[in-house]
Amino acid sequence: MSKSRTLELTPVQTLACCSPLTREPLSQSDAERIAPLLKALADPARLRLLSLVASHDGGEACVCDLNDAFDLSQPTISHHLKVLHEAGLLDRDKRGIWVYYRARTEAMTALGALIGAV
Questions:
Q1: What is the mean pLDDT of residues 25-52?
Q2: Could you tell me if residue 50 is inside a domain?
Q3: Collapsing DSSP states into helix, strand and coil, what is residue 105?
Q4: Which residues of 63-77 are buried (b: 16+ CB within 10 A; e: fewer)?
Q5: 14: pLDDT confidence band, cut at 50, 70 and 90?
Q6: What CATH number is associated with residue 58?
Q7: What 3-state class would DSSP assign to 103?
Q8: Bridge partner residues of 90 (DSSP)
Q9: SS3 of 29-86
Q10: Minimum mean pLDDT range among 22-31, 60-69, 77-86
Q11: For residue 12, with 0-12 CB atoms within 10 Å meaning exposed, 13-18 middle and 19 or more buried, which class applies?
């Protein structure tokens, strides 16, 4: 007899499955899976980085494009971008010595849907 395996969803996948907060309460398990994504956004530098990347010309930005917007070291900015990437909010591509970031459209859409219209 085979055991059924529970499919582990990422925070972004969980967001996509959830109703808006204003429609019905989140389950405990959904809240636990979504919290790391929201925690990644709870830092002002990360929230601003996500905004800068998402609104950048062409929809993507290089780390080199972001350094001047902050009074932070390049390694600190890279750390924040890594947290956003690992949370599923940014995609990244390495081109030569630079890393380019793009906001994940499905993650942004799912976040908007989770908050929902009041």
A1: 89
A2: yes
A3: helix
A4: bebbeeeeeeeeeeb
A5: low
A6: 1.10.10.10
A7: strand
A8: 103
A9: HHHHHHHHHHHHHCCHHHHHHHHHHHHCHHHEEEHHHHHHHCCCCHHHHHHHHHHHHH
A10: 22-31
A11: buried
Please give the Cα distance from 69 to 100 (Å, whole number): 16
**Per the domain annotation, does 31 fall within a domain?**
yes
CA dist 90 and 101 (Å) reads: 6
Instruction: Tell me how far apart the alpha carbons of residues 10 and 33 are, in angstroms, rounded to a whole number.
Output: 7
The two three-digit tokens of residue 21, written as one number: 């907060």
| CB of 69 closer than 8 Å to CB of 52 | yes
The stretch 12-19 carries a mean pLDDT of 60
